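name: query_chain
kind: protein
chains: 1
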Amino acid sequence: MAVGWKAAPEDLVEEWSLLRATAADWPGGLRAVPEEWAASPEQLEGTGAEITRTFTEKVPTKRLLVLGAPGAGKTVLLLRLLLGLLHRRLESAATGSVAAVPVLFPLATWNPTRQDLYAWMSQRLAADYPNLADSAPARFGKIDRARALLDNRLILPVLDGFDEIATPLRSAALSAINEALPFGHPVVLSSRVGEYRNVVRPRFGFPVRLAGAAGIELRPLEVDDAAAYLRRDAGGSGYSADRWEPVTARLDTTTPVGTVLRTPLMLFLARTIYNPRVGEGYVDLPHPGELCDTSRFPTRAAIERHLFSAFIPAAYRPHPRHPSQWTPQQAQRTFVFLARYLHLALNGTPDLSWWQLPRATQRSIPALVTQAVCLLLGTAFAAIGFIFAASSDILTKIVAPLTGVLLGVILGVVLVMPGWLAFDTESRRPTSGLRWTPNWLWLAIGTVATLFLTKAVQLSFPMAGTVGLAIFITFGLGATAADTALEVGPMALWSRDRRIFWALTLAVTTTAGLGIWVPLAVNGVSATGQITALGIALWLGLTVAFTKTAWGAFASAQYHLALRHRLPRNLMAFLADAHQYRGVLRQVGAVYQFRHIDLQRHLASTPDGD
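structure:
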């Protein structure tokens, strides 16, 4: 469904004659008005793919405000604009000219009182495109590549979701945008109409607007287009399509159902809930005519809440071709948890990254594992102490078990402590492959260990050298961080990181195991001692893998969430199914997102049990 737009309300944008005059007279500007510039705001009107021409040719200042109702299609329109600008950039690159790269920045995670816009955009670029976190060439100063691109205006910011910034911060945010991206710097900003109007015309305080910007406002879908969409998705004709007659008859009215079903989002929700799938009967489906019941749904908001609430159960009803292994209740519980996690732990970001999920259990898992290991080892050492002190005096019988408990707790903390590194504040990024980089510190430690074992322990040089070489290789092994911006999907990234986790575990365990086992075996140490040594090598391999990859922490978090919050044990399979067959999630590169930010907000605010 291609959305159309008209000129934004005059009170929300700059005066058009002033925009044309200022753009023409800007230092280094044209000093003449090009013919393609719109002569009035009304000439900005368009639809679909025309957004690229509207921005690049009709808007004199190349600063555009995109307004629209919730679910009207603002983000999709911005994506069409971004793709159109990228296409034009390729064409201009063929002629030798360099144009700024358009980048979409969701504003939901920006707090203007804590970070200026450039610092935040630089952080987002470095997170989404890891290569841009590297140092820029020396001529740009001591900054990273992301900041160098921003400082040299080689990034065209497309700022999406101004209304997603917290209400008290919006005026400060708009002022910060004007300060960081002044007149002469192209920019695109999207917002809901009411939220933007409250900043431009506040009841209290100083009014702020996007300086030098033209504006467009998305139109509601045409009645005929909305009706045709619903009927077409129901098969075009016959009983399934005729079920929509009570609804389509009211689309051109001011009734609640007539005003709700005029945006792409609400139409998508409605057709998912009320239209049968291929091979599915309509007998057990709710009738769309219930939306016309004004006693049950007296307001627009009531219908919207109903559609959001009914969407997950509808998406997970029995599918004739792709049956789900999760019930609607399980799916609802999982999505509510994930939506709350995004809002509470990640400041409302729409990006659901599997490698960041351990942040939902940051304190729980390390504490539980530590307690379990300390309890197990403390009990074991206490029992050993009690057995060995059985024939001793009463004081020894008491002290020995207590000493065993203390020793077990200390050893448990030592064993578990490296695993805590996998649950630090900054989530570990997925990996793309193994690497081995010579570490001179560990080479020195390996050399010292070799000399010590040769001189002090009287091991032969080959055996001592095996230990030193094992130390050098073990701590030189690592993994290369993946460039998540280039990944084709979360599942591929997850699968590769899992393979690297086990490959790293095997490599370190083998290397460390040989380094420890060979001297013990040659010197006739008991089988129990040799097995203990191999167990230590395995522990070391798992520790290195946990701290070098993202999969280990994710797997731990996944099982913890399954036990404590009853989330699916195979969470990645659940997310992939929600994207491929249910339409609840969409895939954006290496991350998933909810179908719409309003769906995420609705689920985040859903009470337990609903």
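note: Residues 2 and 79 are 13 Å apart (CA to CA).
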